Amino acid sequence: MDVTVIGAGLAGCEAAHKIAESGYSVKLVDCKPKLFSPAHKSANFAELVCSNSLKSDERGTAGGLLKNELRALGSFLLRCAEKCKVPAGGALAVDRELFSKSVTESIKTHPNITVASETANDWNDGELTVVSTGPLTVGGINDALKRRIGDSLGFYDASAPIVDACTIDFSKCFSANRYGKGDSDYLNCPLTKEEYSAFVAELAGAERANLHEFDKREIFEGCMPIEVMAARGEDSIRFGPLRPVGFVHPETGKRPYAVVQLRAENAERTMYNIVGFQTNLKFGEQKRVFGMIPALKNAEFVRYGVMHRNTYINSPSELDCYSRLKNSKNTFIAGQLSGVEGYVESIASGLIAGLNVVRALKKQEPLLLPPTTIIGSLYRYITSPNPNFQPMNANFGILPPLAEHVRDKAKRKEEYCARSERDLLEFKKANDLIDLSEKM
Ligand SMILES: Cc1cc2nc3c(=O)[nH]c(=O)nc-3n(C[C@H](O)[C@H](O)[C@H](O)COP(=O)(O)OP(=O)(O)OC[C@H]3O[C@@H](n4cnc5c(N)ncnc54)[C@H](O)[C@@H]3O)c2cc1C
Q: Distance between CA 56 and CA 78 in Å, rounded?
């Protein structure tokens, strides 16, 4: 076999198919049906463990742009999804069983793919390998990773929401660090007593997402959601993440009653994280309740807070820019394990791993997509230095700003899409990839 792919999920199937279609032989290993993770139930590959939606497919959305790029790069799984789609407005939703069945059949009948139903516990660093065992990795792969990267492995994703900087009301917040220490790194959103009380009441009573049993056991030991903290008493979060000590409101000259802090999520400061707001609220509730913070009244959420079990590598410190282990360059990490978040993001990561494995087999240098594409910027995001790294999904906030700022939101998003299309086409021409989309 030329390559081993471990994990026949969304990323692994996409990678294996890409390599096999290029004429190389692949061993695809999956523990199913002998062993299932707590969320996997089907013996088929590419199982969608939760929602059957692959999110928006509309132009002018980040989800739509991601799919557009995948089409342009000839994604096998996106092709399967389109064949199995069910009506879902502007979203691409699929009949999940038909989807997994269709992927599994194509994989199992592919002349260049050999499937092995076994639990992988390690791999050979001397051979080209794609490790894509996903957020619920089982067996010895966690230990095998730890042997190579030490403690740089996360086991749950308890992340706070991230908002688009363009949509923050800067007239309702101020830049400062607590006690004026160092540079003014944080944006601080002051709340009056009345605003705070109304916020806490709504936060404590807001609707929460259902957790899987295994998530309940594991996550809450590690991290308390902001809504649970708020329900413990009116002042609890004012003595926690919203404590105002060390701040002076520039307009009143006094200490605010409470302060919500925003921390830049990337070096360009196009996205801000709401500090200490790890949450398990339903997405609509996050928008409604966090929108009560005056500076965030019209904020657009590029990523909502989530809490679930999620095995992922601290990719900024352990992966090179092509998503290979820094200390084992034959090992490509793909899918959620590499620090991307979401079904379609995992497919994209599998596709790029597949393309780069093929290049490695041809003794060519790996490729990095332009930063103006959403896939290219996602790769850059997960592999750039970040002391507070949490997995990331596709959103416009990770793209570099446009050469000229466009005020109108819809026009701005259209411009992002047009720029990605232009640059991806140039990239494909320059790298002899022009025939990829014809395989769709
Ligand atoms: C509970 C849960 C719900 C989620 N819901 C959504 C959602 O609704 N929408 C969304 O966009 N994203 C969701 N995600 C996030 C993520 O997009 C999906 O988990 C996605 O399937 C990740 O793709 P992957 O290829 O990385 O891993 P997976 O699709 O999980 O594939 C991993 C494969 O590796 C196999 N495997 C694991 N360990 C081994 C081993 N040691 N040896 C051999 N095989 C192994 C597994 O059996 C599996 O087939 C969810 C994640 C979780 C954990």
A: 13
